[in-house]
Amino acid sequence: MTDFLQDYPHGVILALDEMSLYFQATLTRVWSPIGQTPMVAVHPQRNCRYFYGALNLCNGREIAMRVDAENSEISTNFVMQLLMIYSQPILLLLDRASWHYGGLRHLIEDTDRLSVIYFPVACPELNPQEHVWERARDRISHNHNYQCFETLIDDFECYLNETPFQTNFLDKYIPKGWRHF
């Protein structure tokens, strides 16, 4: 990463990932008064919508997009949208999902201002985008009862795109003298 910042001092570092949002209620632990068990209605539907997200590690801005699947074509299209949003060089931090290869690999090879670093295998906790998904689930989908799946999807996407998500990832891995943002 320091090589990228040395070559492109005003470049953007993005952590990218995908997630599945289900209409079926997801539960997490909560505090409640002794003897009063919290109640959450459960819908039997297993409807699912996928999201792609890229967290700008320089300013905490999230760019999220709802999609119908997770595959190489959609991954490539999402990265192409990121290239349209950001005019400066981009360093993408990715996990090793199978759909991050194929068409995306060709896009990376053919685009001068796009570089990639892959996270180690089986280390999702290293990807700051995973923490964005966790915060969004805690805020929007865990322990909530939506009557309409589209409303849940809209609220989830709105939260992602309108909430700043600060991370200390760069503080851990890049000395302050190397950063120009």
What does this entry look like structurally?
Helix 4 (128-141) packs across helix 5 (149-162). With 181 residues, the chain is α/β, with parallel strands linked by helices. Strands 3-2-1-4-5 form a 5-stranded mixed β-sheet, with helices on both faces. A hairpin with a 5-residue loop joins strand 2 (48-56) and strand 3 (62-67). It starts with a helix and ends in an 8-residue tail after the last helix. The chain contains 6 helices and 5 strands, in the order αβββαβαβααα. The radius of gyration is 18 Å and the shape is globular. It has one domain: Ribonuclease H-like superfamily/Ribonuclease H (Nucleotidyltransferase, domain 5, 2-Layer Sandwich).
Could you name the key traits of this structure?
181 residues, alpha/beta, Nucleotidyltransferase, domain 5, five-stranded mixed β-sheet, 5 strands, 34% helix
| Pattern of helices and strands | HEEEHEHEHHH
Output the radius of gyration.
Answer: 18 Å
Task: Kindly report the oligomeric state of this protein.
Answer: single chain
Average per-residue pLDDT, rounded, comes to 87
Low-confidence stretches: none
Q: The CATH topology is what?
A: Nucleotidyltransferase, domain 5
The shape is: globular
Q: Which strand-content bin applies to the residues?
A: 15-25%
The figure for the number of domains is 1
CATH class: Alpha Beta
Helix content: 25-40%
Biggest sheet statistics? 5 strands, mixed
Supply the number of helical segments.
Answer: 6
Distance between the termini: 14 Å
What is the topology, as strand order, of the major beta sheet?
A: 3-2-1-4-5
